[in-house]
Amino acid sequence: MVTINTKKNTLNIVNPKLNLSAEDQRRQKNIISKLNLAKLPFDIAPDRICDLNLEMARHSRAVLKYQEDKSGIKWIFSSIKKYKVFLIIFEANELGEEMYKEKISTKLPEYSYKTIAQIVDEGVKKNFFNKLEARAKKTKDLKIRNLRPSEDIIIEFVNWKIDLLSSLMSFKKDLIN
């Protein structure tokens, strides 16, 4: 048995479906004691912790499978560097701000300008990024080539996030009920 304190109550974790060895019980107790269960937006029944873990694993697989069908999402998630660059360009677009290679480079100092430039150039070549004026702020510097995500990549990304949120809400409903 493992005792867990959540924000609303104390849980005694015992999974009657499993006949765990003493070593596995110790391991499970150690893992559960270090989980941030109090951050969950819901309380979970003591015998549902393994169900929670399984659902999270299945959900993660579904999220990764989604990207296989979408070339833009697949490209974005092919490296953490590309994902970080995309998020900076996406955010700037939504805020109506200018974004260009040099500015991205200052926001991601852990990567060289050359790395940022290669990612941006590849994204432009694949039509994931477009060189368009910023939505709101206009530059006076004609040398600046503002970057914005393509319509298709915005649609893929937002739909992916909507699917993710929908899946999480369904997951929460199924787990609690």
Sum this structure up briefly:
This protein is mainly α and 177 residues long.
Outline the secondary-structure elements.
Blueprint: E1 2-5, E2 10-13, H1 22-33, H2 49-68, H3 71-76, H4 80-95, H5 101-107, H6 113-125, E3 129-131, E4 147-149, H7 151-176
Antiparallel strand pairs: 1-2, 3-4
Helix pairs in contact: 2-7, 5-6
Helix content, binned percent: 55-70%
| Count of separate DSSP helical elements | 7
CATH architecture name of the largest domain: Orthogonal Bundle
Order of helices and strands: EEHHHHHHEEH
Major sheet details: 2 strands, antiparallel
Radius of gyration: 22 Å
Structure, explained:
- The chain is mostly helical and 177 residues long.
- The chain has 2 domains: 1-43, no CATH class; 48-177, Winged helix-like DNA-binding domain superfamily/Winged helix DNA-binding domain (Arc Repressor Mutant, subunit A), CATH 1.10.10.
- Helices cover 56% and strands 8% of the residues.
- It has 7 helices and 4 strands.
- The protein has helices spanning 22-33, 49-68, 71-76, 80-95, 101-107, 113-125, 151-176, and strands at 2-5, 10-13, 129-131, 147-149.
- The strands form 2 sheets. The chain has a two-stranded antiparallel ribbon with strand order 1-2. The protein has a two-stranded antiparallel ribbon with strand order 3-4.
- Helix 2 (49-68) packs antiparallel against helix 7 and helix 5 (101-107) packs across helix 6.
- The chain is elongated.
- Residues 1-14 have low confidence and may be disordered.
